[in-house]
Amino acid sequence: MSSNDFAIRVSNLSKCYEIYANPRDRLKQFIAPRLQRLIGQAPKQYFREFWALKDVSFEIKKGETVGIIGRNGSGKSTLLQMICGTLTPTSGSIQTNGRIAALLELGSGFNPEFTGRENVYMNASVLGLSNEEIAARFDEIVAFADIGEFIAQPVKTYSSGMMVRLAFAVIAHVDADILVVDEALAVGDAFFTQKCMRFLRTFMKTGTVLFVSHDTGAVTNLCNKAVLLNRGQVVEVGAPKEVIEHYLATLYESSQDIGGITIEEFNTPANQVQSQGQYRDMRESLINASTLRNDIEIFQFKADENGFGTGNAKIVSVQLLASDGVPLSWLVGGEDVILDIRCHAYKDINRPIVGFQFKDRLGQVIFSDNTFLVYQHSPITVVSGTDITARFEFRLPVLPSGDYSISPAIAEGTQEEHVQHHWLHDGLMLRVHASSICLGLIAVPMKKVSLGKK
Question: CB-based contacts of 407: which residues, under 8 Å, 6+ apart?
């Protein structure tokens, strides 16, 4: 990458904090090593080291939108603060190419005793604008923030939402080349969040965006690259879909004794996919004269896709059926279908939950559901060595052209607390051959559309 192509370059970046058991150890660390050196003794250390980041390296090109994801405490906010210059690295280097505007921790960069107006001038000047430039944009900043007469009140009187509104309004009007956003947007109301999203999408056409989010849907939707951090180290850098799948696996692995399920584990008779039987084409029963069809091709279930879980139960078959129970190789958007998910138990499973996610090619979840609510008051038990089948009957929405996938899963427990036995990424693939017009993520079949004059 040439010197002008990158926006952010992080090289072998590390950050170490000194953790003291009690306050007097801090004083000992300040005095004792000096005395010990004077008398020829080896200096004693009165703290333990905590590495918030360890040897982190990656590059972001100009114009990229990159999401930083990871569990709490993985070093995400520390990384952003060092990129923005508010924290000093212990070792390593950071290079940035362009003006950075950042929205980090709630209220960071604001003086609570100053009014909103005074904080606008102070914050914008720190970001590189002159007083004349700030004055020329002040009305636009206030209009974007939409906090009314509170602009003349001290920031300490603001709610968290008002604080975010004003902070985002400032960074949206400083002509930044790089925008850095932490989780602060999570406290905004729905209308302001949508306004921020519209601004981000416009900014992304020419600028570079780096943001932290636990919302995997936002990362999938907005980013063209993702960085996964775990315990202060970079685990993976790549396409959001693959990185998020890895992230979901690490979330469960952190609280359960599970690992990725390998292809070899499926090479037992109990795991073989059942014969799909004779297919029929759902289109045969339709009048084939229209050019506005939403034809959907269904591929064979793939048991060898990547997944994770304890392995105490596994997904062994996923099918889409017609309303009469016949397996389909083609179907039509807007028609009633049955999603059939069969699982095999290798141990007794109490309170099983079977569910699925229907995702587009980017990994965005279009819709999802599971069996928990239906059986929460009358849970069942699956005996080891037996199968369990979940069926979901619904009307498939009309979909834009492209590839889609169904990711099934079986867990045990409740909606809030459960053990994931098998989560299978992209177990069933679909391809939409659409000549009909769909302007959103999905199109809902209309019962009636009318137009009239009075």
Answer: 356, 357, 359, 423, 424, 425, 426, 427
